[in-house]
Specification:
about 5% strand; 2 domains; two-stranded antiparallel sheet; about 140 residues; about 55% helix; mainly alpha
Amino acid sequence: MLAAGVQAQGVVFPAGSPGARAAAECRLPAAVFADADVRRLCKRLRRTGDHIFTFLDYPEIAFENNFAERQIRPAVILRKNSQSNRSNRGAVTQAVLMSVYRTLRLRGHDPLQTITAALRTYLQTTHLPPLPAPGTANG
């Protein structure tokens, strides 16, 4: 572990942080930092470096976001096949419904049955029930 913060080309990372370890490995010549894009990247790393490199400390965290991309793909295909949302309100409605649908599916529930039951409850009580706990449905 590093005793003090690490500075790389003007970007300071806290000691021992994933960003500090990554910066310590970075050996770029000063001339590279004359480029505006490189300076912009350094500025971004200064703000978010510890979050970007979290996967270095926690092997159970993926270094890419393929899982998230796969989760939103059905909604993107639906939007494409239905020729987009016709309004901002429609886009927001679809985003909320897709979020609830995917959450229910990931929790092991049948989304259509759960949403139908929630709407019945709402019509009877004027209150929506909370999302069910993971793995409690036959799904």
